[in-house]
Inverse folding.
């Protein structure tokens, strides 16, 4: 099918063919990885298609299926694994025009896939609710992109990860068939599409539970010793009576990359960045004192939205700030096993020194508080990076390797058999985001 | 000081001297314990005084201090340790007229000590909030009584125990001095009075954080195997994405004591009683299926307040229902250590059989889900009861022994040194609830 024929058949649906624009919309933030950059260089779609509602999505799906055109779905492109970089050209299906907030009720909302997380928050807060968890890119990221390519973030210290039972209520997907179907997945069935990198149908609507929108305060606490800071973070994350949505610990010298915050973080100290319900604020000084910390910055809830926003220095925004200062820096994503957590963190801290600067994000995993880490790595070679990864893995750390565009090499290690079964049904021609999965490539080769 | 002189000096403050009334107001629910009943038999106050506001509390305190009259403070008398049974007569200070709700704001409320928990809930729910945790006696229990003599309950699976940092924001207490002072305790200082059984000043006001008032659904799930039921309870309690305020597991034959629920619990099955946010309900069947359970009863949130109320079959209401059928039954209160929990539960279940019927309440302790237990015990002799307790303790179970009226023999084992220091300041004559503490009795004897 020629590009012109495709455009003609799309009729009123918005298309973009300007090569600069198409190249831009074929990108995400895999540029954080010096390993991925060369591997994904030059990978661009042939055309960007921007449906405005589900009916247009169905039209695009039908045409692509009939003509066997690859389809790579994207939200805002804030992922870091090259999730929405098309390996085999074809159509980039940009979902950002699907931005209706369908309804918001106490504790639950349903929205179109392209709704920005911040937009849903704004609407939900009118009635006292908000997203349970969000990546640090919540201002631009879409909810469909978060479901397809994300896993957790700010709020995960309370609610765990997006894939945990109860954190995602329903998904509506369009299949990539000549006569596309629209399928509503509810309950455990949402896992057939959650975190599937857009290979399992085109998400058009998302139903999520909401969390109460506490008045949130932001706090920086500094410590002279990194391990003490980490212990404080763990104790706070475990304090069941204190409501928090962020407990982040940075080893010095990471804060040097946060220019606007220098006056709150004395050089050489190790800060905790916290977001706490204002009702829990009065209980903080007792805990801080117990670990010998100092509260150096406090922003009350009424100033939220004004001035500095601590959340935007955490999770993968940390890496962004560091790379803005020194673009030779890259990162890891990992979960430290709960049974040995802080001793192992101490060992890694001393072993690698400044080569691997530790950035902890406390989260809940199956009911227990564990330190996730997005370590900043001073990159030298791919070999050394792999050596660092292997060292961590040998110690029992789960590395969700952000230096691969293969699903199985990232956090999940395998694709859920349920997802594969669903894949065969909704994408019989293997057109969705092709090339991102080992097992699917293997199957495709066997067929051909 | 004669009773008449006391009454005269109290002027307009309500007093009760009718012996039947005084005897009734000298009681609590220690009658659940066949060991406590004979020990506390005949222990009554000389008079009940019912101040209507703090100024009257101050007057009572001044007179009692000046004349060295013992003072035993009570709320609704729903405790089970004889906390408000006066060992040395004197004044029963009944706080139930202090029932002003001072203010309720999003996430926090301040009330007078005698406010019933259910009354605060009703008010707070008007703006979308409610108590974070409550005993099963919430319809009658007062908040001051809960603070002085309680420790947790329905909601503790989410927020931990009342004593956990952040679950109690401030207390206002009147000292027992000839010129009483009014002291406001905030932050960690609230621990000087929390769970002190009324020996550390008279609480007049309480400030508590609130939790979001989710639309709550009630569910019964039955299992053929008790340990499977317990494993299900643990998995649900650990499911970070599912919002719950009650996860209770009963070993058969406990449900035989719940007459109104018989049709939902097939004989010989082991039920889970759950209170879940309605948004989490859709995620329940997947988990239930995983453990081979059956959902036999479901009450949607809109029917809350109508018909059966599952919460009132849990925590110590379980014991109440059992004793209504068979008053030879008594109980234990315990916490199973987290590291071995369900294996140990299985061992105890098989070892004691029907003599100790296991009733689990999952709660959070320092960030981790652990099974608390309020086992029903078929009572034979005090010796056998002690043997049962010792067996549990030898296995590492913490027994908060409800068969003693001595603070140190209950759940806390020792009185916090901070509480003792505060005691000396606020009750210099040792008049408050005398006889309930080993260390204080010892000190009193040394002085005399």
């Amino acid at each position: 099918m020629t590009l012109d024929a495709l455009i003609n058949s799309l009729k009123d649906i918005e298309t973009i063919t300007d090569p600069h624009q198409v190249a831009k919309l074929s990108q995400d933030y895999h540029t954080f990885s010096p390993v991925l950059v060369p591997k994904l260089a030059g990978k661009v779609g042939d055309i960007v298609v921007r449906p405005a509602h589900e009916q247009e999505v169905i039209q695009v799906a039908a045409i692509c299926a009939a003509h066997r055109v690859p389809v790579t779905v994207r939200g805002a492109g804030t992922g870091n694994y090259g999730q929405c970089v098309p390996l085999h050209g074809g159509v980039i299906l940009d979902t950002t025009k699907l931005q209706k907030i369908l309804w918001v009720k106490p504790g639950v909302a349903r929205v179109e896939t392209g709704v920005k997380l911040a937009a849903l928050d704004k609407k939900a807060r009118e009635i006292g609710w908000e997203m349970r968890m969000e990546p640090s890119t919540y201002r631009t990221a879409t909810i469909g992109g978060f479901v397809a390519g994300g896993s957790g973030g700010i709020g995960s210290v309370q609610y765990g990860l997006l894939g945990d039972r109860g954190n995602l209520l329903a998904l509506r997907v369009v299949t990539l068939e000549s006569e596309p179907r629209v399928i509503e997945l509810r309950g455990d069935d949402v896992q057939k599409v959650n975190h599937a990198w857009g290979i399992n149908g085109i998400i058009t609507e998302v139903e999520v539970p909401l969390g109460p929108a506490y008045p949130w305060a932001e706090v920086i606490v500094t410590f002279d010793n990194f391990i003490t800071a980490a212990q404080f973070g763990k104790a706070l994350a475990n304090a069941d009576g204190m409501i928090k949505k962020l407990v982040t610990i940075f080893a010095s010298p990471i804060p040097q990359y946060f220019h606007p915050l220098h006056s709150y973080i004395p050089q050489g100290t190790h800060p905790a960045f916290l977001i706490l319900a204002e009702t829990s604020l009065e209980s903080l000084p007792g805990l801080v004192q117990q670990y010998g910390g100092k509260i150096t910055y406090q922003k009350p809830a009424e100033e939220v939205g004004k001035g500095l926003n601590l959340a935007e220095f955490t999770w993968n925004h940390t890496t962004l700030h560091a790379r803005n200062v020194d673009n030779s820096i890259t990162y890891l994503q990992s979960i430290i096993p709960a049974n040995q957590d802080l001793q192992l963190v101490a060992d890694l801290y001393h072993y690698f020194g400044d080569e691997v600067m530790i950035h902890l994000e406390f989260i809940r995993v199956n009911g227990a508080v564990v330190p996730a880490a997005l370590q900043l790595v001073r990159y030298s070679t791919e070999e050394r990076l792999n050596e660092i990864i292997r060292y961590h893995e040998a110690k029992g750390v789960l590395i969700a390797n952000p230096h691969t565009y293969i699903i199985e090499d990232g956090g999940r290690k395998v694709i859920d058999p349920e997802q594969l079964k669903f894949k065969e049904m909704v994408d019989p021609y293997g057109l969705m985001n092709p090339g991102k999965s080992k097992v699917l490539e293997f199957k495709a080769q066997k067929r051909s």
Remarks:
- The longest helix of chain A spans residues 54-66.
- Chain A touches chain B at residues 106-108, 128, 132, 158-161, 164-167, 169, 186-188, 209-210, 212, 214-215, 237-243, 277-280, 282-283, 285-287, 364-369 (CB under 8 Å).
- The first strand of chain A starts at residue 14 and ends at 16.
